[in-house]
Amino acid sequence: MDKKFAPHIEELTKALGNISRSTIEDELELLLKYRVPIDEAKRSILKKFQNDSPVLKKVNDLAIGDKGIALEVRILNINEKNVNLRGNSVTIFSGALADESGLCSFTSWKALSLNPGDAVRVRNASVRAWHNRAEVSIGDRSEVELLEETYLPDISELSVTPVKKLGEVGYSDMFISSVAAVIELYHRDVNVKGKDLTIIEGVMADETSRLPFVSWSLLDGVDIGTIVRFEDASVSMYRGVPSIHLNESTSVHIVGPEEHLSFTFASVNLPPKPLPLGDVLQNEGMFDVSVEGNIVSVRPGSGVIARCPECNRVIMKNTCRSHGVVEGIRDMRIKLILDDGTGSLLVMLNRELSEIVYGKTLQESESLMGKEMSANVVYDDMKSILTGHYLGVRGNTSKVEYGVTFVAKSVWVPSEDLDMRVSVLLERLEGVE
Amino acid sequence: MVEREIAHRIFAKELNDSSSTIHSTIEEAINSEGHTPNYLLTPVGTMVNRVFIVGVITEVDNVGTETDTWKARVVDPSGAFTVYAGQYQPQAAIFLSSVETPAFVSVVGKVRVYKPDAGSPIISLRPEEIHLADEAMRNCWVIDTAELTLDRIDAFSKMLSLCENDPDSCNCPENMVIPSNLSEGICLAIDNYGTGADYLNELRSVVKRCIISIDLVSSADGDKDIDVVVMELLEELDDGKGVGYMDLLSVANSRNINEKAVDSAVRSLLAKGQCYEPKIGIIRPIS
Q1: What terms describe the molecular function in GO for this protein (chain B) (predicted)?
Q2: What does pTM read for this prediction?
């Protein structure tokens, strides 16, 4: 084959990891014989083989937006449903499927004659978001074939609620069991369907992570400092952050001091250690993490802003999108990009934190703006004061429509323990001239 | 959703040793809704589009003919970055037109590569942000950059040792131990630059020089000659019977003086007659 096509073949081989080079060469040669332009030829080869070679994934690795994946799973339960789709009544099948890594709900738009316990191979399925979590979608073009009964662990094994560390809880978990220390707890009065209830909200922690929890039953004897073992708690996802839900049917036991655990209340009730940004970005949402980096950009929309008194939206020129002309309430915020060389993240600071970081109060900033009340003066001043500087933040990350955002709860200037880091570096460079 | 490019921490030496650019592939063009950044590939396999640097601005010249274009040199311990700002970077241009050199500055910028018909390509930065910084920030940046550069070098070393049996192939299955975002760049660097252990060691010593240059090491000793430091150490440890060489090494190590430095200092002290070896492995200072 002509030398000049080598880079293209190289590229295709890279893109289609599991197809041999010679196959690709033959395909390309054939298309070029037909005088198909090279870009078109490459496109169709990509398309042709990507469907032939679906990626076999474990349930635990499913990500929303996956397409053309293959799964080897057991059906845990399956129900027939009639739904109304654009005026037509359609029969769909939904339920839960699982492999040894986790379980996940599914919806099939084509008829399946399957029973709970069947082991199947699903090809060319996609993953969509449903109630903030991943759901396997089996469409007309997906293929489902039965597997040997013994090919996967037994259904009784697969439907056991996994015992997990909090740091391992993710999209594929609907129910988990775990042991964790309660590090925050408060009661809240809510009104559900006309009934007044008192619920408990708070934060649990083990040595891997912290997660928010909600309890619909009053947990007798549980308070801050208590270590609890709970079984079959349901997990809900919001913006990529899991939260644990306990109710009357969840078994919750208080763990006494005689049990030896890998952590104590004191050891997990510490501020989180700063993580590399690259690690944080691998998760869609993380609860209560710290990161440190440089401010590489202060984004437009930072500075002195006005909010609608009705709905708290940021308003322009005294006009709210839903309430028309209003008398705005002045506020201050900073949106900045923090970057540590392993990743970058949009960080939001509220007024209180903005005043700390910027070093000027809202009133002082307003007096900067002068008679014209030009907010750009404050924005430009913020940029020149903050850009490039080191900043540490602690808070939650969540996935919103335009990427991962970090909402800060506290801020600091990272302490410079350079001596320690220098010694470690010199140790790594031992023997280098 | 287009991911924001990471601002890489990179020493001038690694950046200026680069010449290959990576343009995005068709696959990416199909998948990325028309946003396809170009990268400069460094000899260590870093794919750089944006950088963050903190250094000393030493020169600013107006090189524009019709409109003002400012060319600046920003120096780090390993060399210099060239920064160009013109009418499309108004804030950076204003900053450069009025900055007093020398000064500590931080720059967030995009890498530009100009390939003249003859000669080597010219690497410069187009600043998105340029602001005054201070010495503490610069020192911190040098340490950050040293750590991250060393991580890249170590990953490269690992990859080289894995592919030793078959240097032409980057598909050895063991590559899975290195994250794919790194291994791809490393393979490209081997193809484009033939980077080998020699270059990695050269860069390692650059990193080491950078760390030492900011003079954080044993700052209490200031810029004392290493011989003097080792001599003082000997006197401090000597109980009248001399000092075991191993003990000397371990104490020196705990004070950030490495074995090689101690070894050469002891030799030179012996040569100068400031200490002697009553027994093999025992050094005794002559006071």
Answers
A1: DNA binding
A2: 0.72
